[in-house]
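Quick one from the shared queue. A colleague (R.T.) flagged NADH dehydrogenase [ubiquinone] 1 alpha subcomplex subunit 6 as missing a structural entry in our internal table.

Convert sequence to structure tokens.
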Amino acid sequence: MSNALKNVKVAPNSATLAEARHRVFDFFKTACRSLPTVMHIYNLDDVTSISELRSTVASEIRKNSHVTNPKVIDMLLFKAFEELKNVVDMAKQRHHIIGQYVVGKQGLVQDRATKDQGISPFLKNFYNSNYS
């Protein structure tokens, strides 16, 4: 199943920031090329699309755009390749993938407004004061 990642190796160190940046782009290309396999393995067609997963990968990469140390970028790339390999090798289950990459961290909070419509003002204040 992981034919797409068998020949991918993480280089030992980036000498410059430009080289590290180039390696980040290479990782993004590799991740995007493996997304159809991930969609097939985890049967995600009913939940998301490849373009949504691609934008999730891009946003995860953008979270660390402020990092300028090549050694730190190399460490983050190593962790990213490890995560990608775990996903492609089915080391995670479907609900892990959906929770981490489809729904996301704030996905469950967005449904909160529709559930609060039938609740009394007292309970709304109680929930807000105790769980916020």
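Residues 6 and 17 are 27 Å apart (CA to CA).
The helical segments are 17-42, 50-62, 70-88, 94-103, 107-110, 112-115, 121-131.
Added to the table.
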